[in-house]
Design brief:
Strand 4 and strand 5 form a beta hairpin. The chain is of the alpha/beta class and 132 residues long. It has 3 helices and 5 strands. It is globular. The longest helix has 17 residues. A 5-stranded mixed beta sheet has the order 1-2-3-4-5.
Length: 132
């Protein structure tokens, strides 16, 4: 919910990774909780969210990793200032009719297009993504 917690969490992530090379960035997932509006982060302002994302990303990048942001398309449009995070790898979730590309004006690098995917050997639905 604040810069201090973001720095601590990013520090924990990088210590757990311990230099292991990754194919994809370390993503910061920001969204409303399933218990909205009671979640700790549900009432944050755009400025607070950006400060938290920037702090997390700073530690990740200074540890030799690439940082990214994951959120739903609508969340990015309404709860974030895209220009403040556009230097990150951007992963949006947007479930469109017939899996048509989202109507998202800004750049995105990964698109989660369904949460109803099926993969042999996995019980239940899974998210499916496209990396551009």
């Amino acid at each position: 919910v604040n810069r201090t917690e973001a720095l601590q969490e990013a520090g924990l992530v990088t210590s757990m990774l311990d230099g292991i090379p990754l194919d994809l960035p370390v993503f910061f997932d920001t969204e409303f909780t399933g218990d909205y509006p009671k979640g700790r982060c549900d009432g944050l302002t755009i400025a607070q969210r950006i400060e938290i994302i920037r702090a997390f990303s700073y530690v990740i990048e200074n540890s030799g990793y690439e940082a990214g942001l994951y959120a739903s398309e609508s969340f990015v449009k309404t709860e974030l200032d895209y220009n403040s995070v556009s230097d990150l790898t951007v992963w949006i979730a947007s479930y469109t009719e017939n899996n048509a590309l989202p109507d998202f004006e800004d750049r995105f690098d990964i698109w989660q297009f369904t949460d109803n995917g099926r993969i042999p050997g996995v019980n239940g639905n899974v998210d499916i993504n496209v990396v551009f």
